[in-house]
Amino acid sequence: MEEGAGFGLYVHWPFCQAKCPYCDFNSHVVAGVDQARWARALAGEIARVAERTGGRDGARRLTSVFFGGGTPSLMAPETVAAVMEAAQAGWVCANDLEVTLEANPTSVEAGRFAGYRDAGVTRVSLGVQALNDADLRRLGRLHGAADARAAFDVARDVFERVSFDLICARQDQTREAWAAELDEALAMTVDHLSLYQLTIEPGTAFAARQKAGGLRGLPDEDLGADLYEMTVERCEAVGLRLYEVSNFARPGAECRHNLLYWSGGEYAGVGPGAHGRLTLGGRRVATEQASAPGAWLSGVEKGDLSHAREEEITVWDQMVEYLLMGMRKREGVALSALSVLGDGGASVRERAHALEDVGLVEMVSGRVRATPRGRLLLDRVVAELAG
Question: For residues 90 and 129, is the Cβ–Cβ distance under 8 A?
Fold first, then answer.
């Protein structure tokens, strides 16, 4: 939607060694995976989608690829290489193509890092989540804090760009404990950090545990806000600038693929449960692939297109989606992008002035962005802007 947002490919690997109790992603624990069969299916589906989007005619230039999951670091390097070969055959690629792979920080998976680099991965994102063993056990993680530190060191030796995730607002977490943990993370000379507050999602093991009264010690809203504000201050003090509500980076180290999402760009989604946003025949459409791994795999192999669904997105829904995603960015949304969506864009401008008067947003250089106070109330801000 925003000019220059880019075009990306999201590849979903649905398998994990264990299901984390807080996770509501499309992930599955299985005894074994036929890597060669999955590589063929993913490559074949990429070729089909590329043909639909006019790939090699140059109409779209692929600027980013993201391997998400599930646990993509359970993929064999040869599987990643097959996917990358299909992507490069399907679309004209940018010279500085960003290729991110999410990884668990275990020694086994860190041993594959060089293979991923050779397959074309340029950036790895480690799911560290916590830097103490007690909380890692509570979160259902299979690695320890020492494993995470060792995997991070390997990643830094192999890749130029490394990020890692931390979860805050955990059970019984104090301001002092989070400050110490965050300072340790920042001392690891990261160039990108993703911070997520622990949320209890419906259908997860944590949700069931909370309903039964067994998930005690979660922080209240005031403590959660304090932890977030502390994080912003400490990150920015060492040069990691908040560029999205949950993401901090040194200049130039921002995740381009995620920026594409937040800027309303186009992306193809391939793999079980993968979503996409494409312009096809002059229509903006939402795509979604079958979530069950077996059904997806069978459909791709048989050429049965019931594994892939698409639905046109109305102009109104495009505007709401852009606000939901774009207001997450520090720089907010572009009024010029809203204006092409019709009268709704003008209404957003009027509502933005009202929110500006109460200090929740500010209008700068043709953009509407949340103030620091507004970021703490972002759901309310977006609802007010959407009307």
Answer: no
DSSP characters for 161-185? EEEEEEEES-TT--HHHHHHHHHHH
CATH topology assigned to domain 7-261: TIM Barrel (3.20.20)
pTM of the model: 0.94
DSSP string, 245-295: TTEEE-TT-S-HHHHHHHTT-EEEEESTT-EEEEEETTEEEEEEE-SSHHH
Q: pLDDT tens-digit profile of 259-294?
A: 999 999 999 999 999 999 999 988 999 999 999 999
Residue holding tokens 């989604």?
Answer: 269
Spans of all domains in the chain:
7-261, 315-387
Which tokens is 17 given?
A: 């060694």
Instruction: Using DSSP, state whether 10 is helix, strand or coil.
Output: strand
The 10s digit of each residue's pLDDT in 18-77 is 888 888 888 888 888 999 999 999 999 999 999 999 876 767 899 999 999 999 999 999
- The answer to whether the beta carbons of residues 152 and 162 sit under 8 Å apart is yes
Determine phi and psi for 215, rounding to 5 degrees: -115, 80
User: CATH top-level class for 315-387?
Assistant: mainly alpha
